[in-house]
Design a protein that fits this description.
This protein is α/β, with parallel strands linked by helices. The chain folds into 2 domains: 21-114 and 147-193, Diaminopimelate Epimerase, Chain A, domain 1 (Roll), CATH 3.10.310.50; 195-234. 57% of the residues lie in helices and 10% in strands. It is built from 9 helices and 4 strands. It has helices at residues 5-21, 34-51, 69-76, 111-114, 121-131, 135-142, 150-153, 162-185, 195-233, and strands spanning 25-28, 54-60, 84-90, 95-100. A 4-stranded mixed β-sheet has the order 1-2-3-4, with helices on both faces. It starts with a helix and ends with a helix. The relative contact order is 0.10. Residues 6-21 and 195-204 have low confidence and may be disordered.
Length: 234
């Protein structure tokens, strides 16, 4: 079958565009949403242009047989020569991980914080108060918060909302890493979340956890009241 020059040029153009679109959303077997693709690409491209660090998002339906997520990342990251950070999600395996091809890149962002299963310091404190076995455990658990992926992934969603939950949580983590790198490098990302949006989220968190603290205070006050009554009756 003979292919005309025009058709050949069109095929090459489409292949080239596909490669460009897949540069930072490096693999997507889950979302398949053009808008999600565009947002990741815009942020990833800007981050690379301003810092020289390539942040790539990998969205897998399932990990290959006989491979855990760390093994998969180690194989994949061999393909990149420039400073690269992989943020990888495997849907059916319920796994999220971050790997770099240069250990020095970890100094630009807090991997433990991004992957924390706990979102807020208040929640971390409450969990530590309930589950810590000793003071050392309490200090570790109460300081483990700020997660921007796992708390959202853990939320319940209807079947038709699963992709929205996945895209929202993974983009939130991608954005968190990108912003931390930008701050470390002393640059500003135009495609990152604005301060107004951050402040709105902060206000909501303050109100929400303020209500929780008030509830805890009232519970403790009520328990002390009944305990005092029992002592007086004796």
């Amino acid at each position: 079958m003979k292919i005309s020059r025009g058709l050949a040029a069109l095929i090459l153009t489409l292949l080239f565009q596909t490669t460009l679109l897949a540069e930072y959303l490096y693999k997507d077997d889950v979302i398949h949403n053009p808008n999600f693709n565009i947002e990741v690409e815009k942020l990833g491209k800007e981050l690379y242009e301003k810092t020289g660090i390539s942040l790539r998002l990998v969205m897998l339906r399932e990990l290959p047989n006989d491979m855990n997520i760390a093994q998969y990342e180690k194989e994949l990251i061999k393909d990149f020569s420039e400073p690269t950070i992989l943020l990888t999600f495997a849907e059916l395996n319920s796994k999220v991980d971050i790997l770099t091809n240069d250990a020095s890149l970890y100094k630009y962002f807090n991997r433990k914080q991004v992957l924390s299963p706990v979102a807020s310091p208040v929640q971390a404190f409450l969990m530590a108060a309930v589950y810590a076995n000793n003071w050392e455990d309490f200090k570790v658990m109460s300081g483990d918060s700020g997660g921007t992926i796992l708390p959202l992934l853990a939320g319940k969603a209807k079947d038709n909302q699963q992709k929205g939950k996945y895209s929202g949580s993974m983009y939130n983590g991608y954005l968190d890493i990108a912003e931390q790198i930008a701050i470390s490098k002393g640059v500003e990302l135009e495609n990152a979340a604005g301060n107004a949006n951050k402040n709105s989220i902060l206000v909501v968190k303050i109100i929400f956890y303020g209500i929780i603290l008030i509830g805890i205070f009232m519970y403790i006050k009520r328990k002390l009241f009944f305990r005092r009554q029992k002592l007086e009756q004796k």
